[in-house]
Amino acid sequence: MRKKMVNVFIDAIVLTMLLGCGSGTKEHTEEEPCLVTNELYSHTVVYCGGRTVDNIASVHVCCDYSGEVDRNGCLPADQPLELEDCEEVNVCFVSEWE
Question: Could you tell me the pTM of the whole model?
Answer without folding.
Answer: 0.66
